[in-house]
Amino acid sequence: MSEVVVEVSGKAGRITLNRPKALNALSLDMIRALTSTLLQWRDDPRVEVVTIRGTGKEGPFGSFCAGGDIRFFHAAALAGDPALEAFFTEEYTLNHLVHGYAKPYVAFMDGIVMGGGMGISQGARCRIVTERTKMAMPETNIGLFPDVGGGYFLSRSPGRLGEYLALTGEMIGATDAVDARLADISLPSGELPSLWDRLAIEGSAAVPVPHRVEGSPLSQHRPEIDRIFALPTVPEIVSALEAETSDWARHTAAALRKRSPLMLHVVLEQVRRARAMNLADDLRMERDLVHHCFHLRPGAASETVEGIRALAVDKDHSPRWNPARIEDVTPAMVAPFFASPWPAEQHPLRGLA
Fold this sequence. Notes:
One of its GO terms (molecular function) is 3-hydroxyisobutyryl-CoA hydrolase activity. By secondary structure, the protein is α/β, with parallel strands linked by helices. The chain has a single domain (1-353), classed as Alpha-Beta Complex (2-enoyl-CoA Hydratase, Chain A, domain 1).
């Protein structure tokens, strides 16, 4: 069975991610299938709207996409497999294609939506979440950073939600996603099949209108988030959280203490640089960053390889971060991540407009 099922039904080009046992984690073959399909449909007069969903264990919907295939990242990095470089170049090119797609693209972000799943949904004309949505950019937990355009779309969240979500990797639900401008509309999951079918019948006329929501759980912490996550450095952010007495502050500080100290510093710089960048420039920066994640310290010495080992390979949940403490990271450790390994004319994403 194909891991990406595509069909044209009525006025809709339909995409179903079909790797449910892996929570639809993206492989290089899936990225290539998605890119090829979108390029083909861009000029297909039959296709008025594109819809994308994931398959869950019980059938369509229920799980969108848990991200990239991190076990592949781990094995490829240790083997020196050039497919790892191709993966990120082609994934980021796909992310750019989605953001600039000429036809309405509707993402049914039901269930798990993380990492690479955000990359193929955040550029959608309409981003639909449900009561089952579990959204996060949890990359600091594996010694990585929120890529796939994460610097771009997180930095455009209100206030300092971008820094908060990027650094902590906190999982949020539907109302928080809409409030953070990472989704456009929240619908009951039971309504998704009928909307999926209606889009095929009515095309772009059936695309839901975005709406804002009130009362998201995160909104009650916005004053603290905006004050603390605006501080200049990661040590100052953590120190401020640890000086607070609320359960939220204690939980947030404890979460940050578990993340890769080095990558927390890199991520804060990433989000703040991206706030002043267009999408193409952000993706080029992120392509530089991800290259360095695997090559500044090659093989098992990579912070990312170690993070994936602890979470998904050995599953001991005890990553040996280097440096081990947030306070031990120096600017000299962070700066090399932001130096491109390629001249501009040779950059893998030089063609992005």
